[in-house]
Amino acid sequence: MELRQYVYLVWRWLWLIVMGALIAGASAYYISRAQAPVYEASATLLVIEGSDGIDNAYNSLLTSEQLAQSYVERLKNYEVLAQAITNLGLTLTPQDLAKLIQVQLVNNTQLIVLRVEHTSPDVARDLANEIPAIFAERNSEQQLARYASLKVGLEDELASLTTELTAAESNLQLELGKTVLNQTAVDRLNDNVLRLRETYARLMANYEDVRIAEVRSLNTLIIDEYARTPEQPIRPRTFTNTILATIVGGMVALGLVFLVEYLDDTLKNPNDIEITTGLNTLGSLQKVKVSKPVDALVVAMEPRSPAAEAYRHIRTNIQYVSVDKEVRTLLITSANIGEGKTTVSINLATALAQSGKRVLIVDTDMRRPMLHKMLEVDGSKGLCNMIIRGREDAQYIKSTLIPNLYVLPAGRLPPNPAELLGSERMKDLFAWLKEQADYVIFDSPPVLAVTDAVVLSRLVDTTILVASAGQTRYPAFSTAVSQIEALGSPIAGVILNKVNANGRFGYAYNYYYRTNYQP
C-alpha cells in the first residue's frame, strides 16, 4: 500500500480510532478516580560499620557492601514488621505489610532508602520511621549478646578478686597494727596483696579490652533522614493514566482497522481489480440511494449529475475499447446478484442513446427479469417467445420514454433458460438483433449463479463485468472472470459500482464537478 492509501484508510476509519481512544481514556479516568489514593513515605538510613582491626581498604569496602545488602534484606524481617504493627496499633499482617515496603541500597554508598506505601499518609510516615528504629534496637541487642557471656565471666572474677583483695588488705593492716611486728608475716601478707592487686589490674585490663572490642565491632543502623508526611499520592495518577489509556486505545483501534482491512478480501478500488485479474476499470460509479425504480435512471433523470457524467465517461471508454474491431454488442454481467448490473445496463444504454445512437437493451435474465419494470414497458412477451416460436417479431421490441432507447423484455419465463440461450435459434436471433440497432446491450444473470452469462459471452463482441465496491470478493470475482476467459470470450473491462461518495475514488470528480460545473 502507498502512503496515501494508509492516510485514506486512517481517515475512513477515523471515527473508530477516535471512539476507541475516547472509550479507553474515559474508562481509565473513571477507574482511576474510583481507586483509593496511595501515599508513599521514605526514610534514608545510614549503616555504620564496626571495626574488626583489619586495615585492608578493599576488604573493608567489600564487607561494608555485604553488610548494607544484608540490612536491606533484614529490614523486612517478620518479627520487625510484627513489632512495628503492634507499636502503631495497625490491623495489618506482617505479610501484607511486607508487600507495601520497598528497601533499596543506594549504589556506591552505605545509605539505604526505605519506602512505605499506605492509603493513609500519616501511617506511611510512621511506618517508615518505626521500622528502622525497631530494627536498629533489635540488631544492637543481637550483637551485644556475643560479648555478654565473656563480660559476665570477667565481672564475676573481678568481684571474687575484689573480695579476696579486700580481705588480704585487712589482714595486712591487722598485722601492721600489732605491737610486736612479725616481719615474716608482714612480708607474706604484703606479697599476697601485691599479687592480688596485680591480678586485679590484669583482669580489669582484660575487661576494658572486651568492652572496647564490643564497641568497635558493633554495626549500627541510624536514621539519617526521617520520613515526612507525603502531601500528594503516588497513585492513581489519573491524568497520566487517562493520557496513556487514550493513546493505547487509539493504537489498538488502529491495529484493529489494519487487521480488518487485511482480512477484507473485497474489491474496493480499481487497483484491486487490476492486481487481481489484470483487467482495466472502465469507470467508477458512486453509490446512489434508490427508493423507487425510476431513481436508478440517473442518466435520464439527472443528466447533469456527477453520476450521469460518470456513465458518459464509461461510454467513451467503451467506444475506444477495441481498435481492430467495432464493438456493437455488449454483455453486461456480474459475479453475484445485487451488484447493480441491471441499473448499469440501463444507464449505459441511456448514455449511448443520448449520443444519437439507436440502442437496444435485451433482458436475457429469464429467471428474475427487471428491465421491463424499471423502464415501465409490457414484459409479457419478449426474447423467450421469439426463441420458442422460431420467428423474429419487431413488435416485441418496445420503445421507451428515452429517445433512441428500445428494450426487448425477457418475456415468458421458461424452465430451461440456459438451453434456450445456447441454442442455434438464439444465434440466428442474435444476428437479427444486431441489425435492429447501432448498439445491442444484453443484461444477463450473474456468472456464478447460472451459466447463462457464460453461454452468451461467446456471441457478443465483448463482455463488461460489474463489481460492487466493498461487496464483491476477490475469489468470486476471479472465478467469474476465469469462466468467461476459459471460452475465449473477450472482456472489455470492469465497472466498479457503488463506490462510496466520500471515499478516495469518488471524491475528486465529485468535488471538481460540483465546484465548477453543476448549475
Could you explain the architecture of this structure?
The strands form two sheets. This protein has an eight-stranded mixed beta sheet, sandwiched between helices. Strands 2-3-1-4 form a four-stranded antiparallel beta sheet. A hairpin with a 5-residue loop joins strand 2 (101-105) and strand 3. It is rod-shaped, with a radius of gyration of 52 Å. It is built from 19 helices and twelve strands. It has 519 residues and is α/β, with parallel strands linked by helices. Mean pLDDT is 85; it is low at 54-62 and 504-519.
Radius of gyration, in angstroms, nearest whole number: 52 Å
Low-pLDDT segments: 54-62, 504-519
Largest sheet: 8 strands, mixed
Query: Could you state the oligomeric state of the chains shown?
Result: single chain
The pLDDT mean sits at 85
Q: Which secondary-structure class do the elements indicate?
A: alpha/beta
How many DSSP-defined strands? 12
Query: How are strands sequenced across the largest beta sheet?
Result: 5-12-11-6-10-7-9-8
Tally of alpha and pi helices = 19
Kindly report how far apart the N and C termini lie.
Answer: 38 Å
Helical fraction equals 40-55%
Approximate shape:
rod-shaped
Strand percent estimate:
5-15%
